[in-house]
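README, section 4: Worked example with a bound small molecule

Sections 1 through 3 covered apo chains. Here we extend the same pipeline to holo records, where the ligand is supplied as SMILES alongside the sequence. The molecule in this example is flavin-adenine dinucleotide. Nothing else about the input changes; the structure line simply encodes the ligand pose together with the chain.
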Amino acid sequence: MKIAILGAGYGGMAAAWDLKKAGHDVVIYEAADYVGGLASGFKEPHWDWSVEKYYHHWFQSDDAMLGLIRELGLEDKVVFPRPLTVMLHKNKWHPFDSILNALLFPGLGFGLDKLRFGLVGLFLRLTKNWQALEKVTAHEWMTKYAGKKVYERMWEPLLVGKFASYYKDVNMAWLWARMHARTTRLGTFEGGFQKFADLFAEKLREQRVEIRLGVSIQSIEKNQAKLEARSGMGIESYDKVLVTTSPNQMAKLCPQLPESYLKGLLELKSMGAVVMTLSLKRPLSKEGYYWFNVPKGEGYPFLALVEHTNFVSKEHFGGDHIVYAGDYLELGHEYFSLSDEGLLEKFIPAFEKFNPEFQRDWIKKIWVHRTNYAQPVPLVGHSKNIPAIQTPIEGLYFASMSQVYPWDRGTNFAVEIGRRAAGLMK
Ligand SMILES: Cc1cc2nc3c(=O)[nH]c(=O)nc-3n(C[C@H](O)[C@H](O)[C@H](O)COP(=O)(O)OP(=O)(O)OC[C@H]3O[C@@H](n4cnc5c(N)ncnc54)[C@H](O)[C@@H]3O)c2cc1C
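The generated complex, written as structure tokens:
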């Protein structure tokens, strides 16, 4: 069969790998002039490694991702350093990167609240029954079982940070999935995620998968038994097509889809993200912390501060210290339209809170990346909202971040759903 895949992100490339192995002719169309999608990176001439546009790491439980890397023979390039994650309490950052450190965290005292926090965490780690948890919001469930104080101290800031005005609507299965499928050890690829994506693309090309970079598909139309992909280069016919874009883009690409499927796509909610990357002459965190969980309510202008060079060595970046400051935001938020310099003005006072010695002249360069589609929002009873991978148009398939539910989006689940889609298409 002749198959087209839209998108050379992790999902599209993983699907191409399996479809090619099954003996099909595969063409990947990628609108950008690079592969890797949301997990792509960029590089300065004096850096050996690339930096992800949006901070990325893997968990040790990322079986689909790590399994694919093994299959590609690249497992010796995966590293799992031990970076330090911290949480704020009374203006002081405390380690929060192991079960022991979570139990020692002073923000909950050492009485009943700590016990409830521990028991709820244990329950969520052990239970597999997410179907029961998706019937209730995380806000209601956590308030009831962990208690108001634990919820407000530990979980509410995370929900507000990730989902803004939707924070009371997100279902409990989302929190379950985070607790269930994540580890405290964090991994990356030698050279950065972009290096992995480039090596993967190289292996696909060796297998004669054609990757057309810089080609945006404008529409997919069913014409008798074939599917026609229209781009600036003209129209090409395929037996099957897999789309890996956002649900919104999918709806625009294929208006021939039945009303009910289109409605399902358009009703899915998601958050965008704005992430600033800075290269600094000096380290920001004196203590060598990697990930600062920043509580939104305390007046910080972003949700996460991540010092990448406390995860991987600054030697890979010519001695530059790399820091990210980012946030998940609803579309229309001013951060999407502010200039990069305007955003920096908002962020600078906050950097001083992480290191009072911070000076503006430590900044060598900044980059700002923005995406409309960063984080799906799972509402109560969400499983019935998930669009089928196999669409009602014969031969047309759709696999996106919004369908990996109950899991939270991530490269691991992009690989998993890409391969699942390929399995259906073979
Ligand atoms: C802020 C942030 C932090 C994250 N952190 C992590 C993390 O720590 N760990 C982790 O594993 N994951 C993380 N993720 C999630 C991860 O990046 C995604 O889950 C994953 O990259 C999605 O892959 P995908 O292939 O499904 O989609 P994408 O990567 O979005 O790929 C879709 C591709 O389709 C292309 N495309 C769109 N329209 C067209 C068209 N019309 N024609 C041709 N091509 C088109 C796009 O250019 C894109 O390359 C993070 C994401 C964000 C935003």
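What to look for in the output: The mean pLDDT is 95. Residues 6-12, 29-32, 37-39, 54-58, 216-217, 244-245, 249, 273, 275, 326, 371, 374, 400-401, 409-412, 414 surround flavin-adenine dinucleotide (CB under 6 Å).

Section 5 describes how to batch many such records.
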